[in-house]
Write the structure tokens for this entry.
Amino acid sequence: MRIGNHYYDPTFDDPIGNTQTDKTVFTYYKLPHDLMYVNRFDGIDIPTDIKTLDLSARKKIVLKNMYEQYDTYKDYLLMSKIKNRKALGLSYEETVDLNTLTNKVKFYEVNNFSYYDENGKKRSIAGLNYYLLENSKLDMILFDTKIDLNQSKFFKWYDENGNLQYRLAYNLKFY
């Protein structure tokens, strides 16, 4: 729906049933035309060559469109879906896997709930929340609009048996 120079779609990415917040948030609210259609097409004007592409190729086109518009519209909620990818220096074409991620960001090695921070100070972890980083889940985690990489740490976590896990930790509490 268009009102003046802004576009609205309260049904696309509809928050009904969202139990994670008391506040209703609409992603497609009061957007300029080019941002409203950054990840979809205006009505039936879908180019024929795009109709014949597989889902993976169409997703790359959407990512490319979002990357091209990001600097102009980064403060809009819709663009938060790629903010973490941009913050990590990932291109729209890059497939995210643990190998790529470990080369792009600083991982801290944790043994017995302790690690050395960026200043070389030993930190003992009393508690944390985390996402287990596995290749099959990385895109989902990096697209999560609730994750703030500035408030998170990437860990190479060794358990008591010496097994390695990669974790994205948040809500860290220290002794």
In short: The mean pLDDT is 85. The longest strand covers residues 122-132. The chain has six helices and seven strands. The CA atoms of residues 75 and 83 lie 10 Å apart.
